[in-house]
Amino acid sequence: MKTVKKAIIPAAGLGTRFLPATKAMPKEMLPIVDKPTIQYIVEEAIESGIEDIIIVTGKGKRAIEDHFDHAFELEQNLMEKQKFELLEKVKHASDLANIHYIRQKEPKGLGHAVWCARKFIGDEPFAVLLGDDIVQAEKPCLRQLIEEYEQTQASVIGVQTVPESETHRYGIIDPIGQNGRRYQVRQFVEKPKQGTAPSNLAIMGRYVLNPEIFMFLEEQQIGAGGEIQLTDAIQRLNEIQRVFAYDFEGKRYDVGEKLGFIKTTVEFALNHEDLKEDVMKFMEDLLKNKIEV
Ligand code: G1P
Questions:
Q1: What is the reported pTM?
Q2: Which of 8, 84, 160, 194 is the most buried (most CB within 10 A)?
Q3: Could you read off the pLDDT tens digit of each residue along the chain, which spans 293 residues?
Q4: Strand ranges inside the chain, DSSP E
Q5: How far is the CA of 232 from the centre of ligand 1 (A)?
Q6: Is the distance from the beta carbon of residue 247 to the nearest atom of ligand 1 less than 6 Å?
Q7: Is 134 in the pocket of ligand 1 (CB under 6 A)?
């Protein structure tokens, strides 16, 4: 039985939705409370049993490499000041896993970013985790997909239900059969035009894929938004071998756009031991004063 030990995290996107914050800083480094978003993703991968991660970076993404590297001066400084708790947090980021990097030289889309990591993956099944979706779940989202893969040896794509009005923002599945949380899929459609989506089940940035996907990525034509789309290659894979969708358990946070990012920050702060009371009080005060802005 094959299992999944390698993961790709595409992080080459330009982050235009967060400009000017992302002019000189990768969007993956924007923090939710005190951790950059990409660290939540790396932690999920490791908690799911992934041993090697390749981050596909692009221009201006050096801060990601520095974050997962040792920071000798900072560690020394914290040690001298006896700030051991902080020291642990800083070291934790660099001790996380075997993290490798490759650069996507042109921003040609998600499908192309995944294709850039093909030599690192070789002939093994692998995971893809997108940084715009953080998932909080009892069993890590990717772990749920890997366990599905272990049962079927078929590629499996994480999905969740979204409101009709949002389907055009996602890859959407056209399901033909359901067994518990697992769906058989007739078609995967990237960003269907409003009113044309075949269902409300949207791809949520977690994938386990068989390596045959690279054959299709290699020759994939430009799709929605003028980019090489992973969803289009998945659809072609689905035509030669089974590709399932899995409606995973857990709450998904959309940190890829401003409102989602703010909501996530507030909710995570309310779940943060040291912050929750003060944040709650601040919000109550804001509401009492009818939010004077
Ligand atoms: C990507 C995928 C899309 C998926 C989405 C989830 O789109 O192409 O299929 O539904 O991530 O966040 P993006 O948001 O990068 O345009």
A1: 0.92
A2: 8
A3: 889 999 999 999 888 899 999 999 999 999 999 999 999 999 999 999 999 999 999 888 899 998 888 777 788 888 888 888 888 887 776 677 789 999 999 889 999 999 999 999 999 999 999 999 999 999 999 999 999 999 999 999 999 999 999 999 999 999 999 999 999 999 999 999 999 999 999 999 999 999 999 999 998 788 888 889 999 999 999 999 999 999 999 999 999 999 999 999 999 999 999 999 999 999 999 888 866 65
A4: 6-10, 31-32, 35-36, 52-57, 98-103, 126-129, 133-136, 155-161, 171-179, 182-190, 201-209, 243-247, 251-254
A5: 12
A6: no
A7: no
User: What does the block give as tokens for 115?
Assistant: 């294709």
- Domains detected in the chain: 6-254 (3.90.550.10), 257-293 (no CATH)
Q: Which residues contact 84 (CB under 8 A, 6 or more apart)?
A: 78
232 lines ligand 1 (CB under 6 A): no
Determine the atom of ligand 1 nearest the C-alpha atom of 229.
8
